[in-house]
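hey can u check if this looks right to u? its 71 residues, i copy pasted from the old doc so theres a chance i mangled smth
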Amino acid sequence: ADLENLLKDRDARILSAKLNHERNRTAIKSFRDAMVAYKLGDYAEARGKWSSLLRSQPTNDTLRYYIASAA
């Protein structure tokens, strides 16, 4: 039973790490897409992408800075 629990815990940690990695990749792509939009002058698009990221990272000061810059 202890071995089964250890294996379940290990599998849960592996799955969690994979999900976190995928979320981070998605967030990085979204941030980059927002930067491209900003540099092209599409401030509304950039703000929208950064605002979406801010909902999942409400204490991220960098996102707040860029959202304000695109206002």
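The chain has a mean pLDDT of 91.
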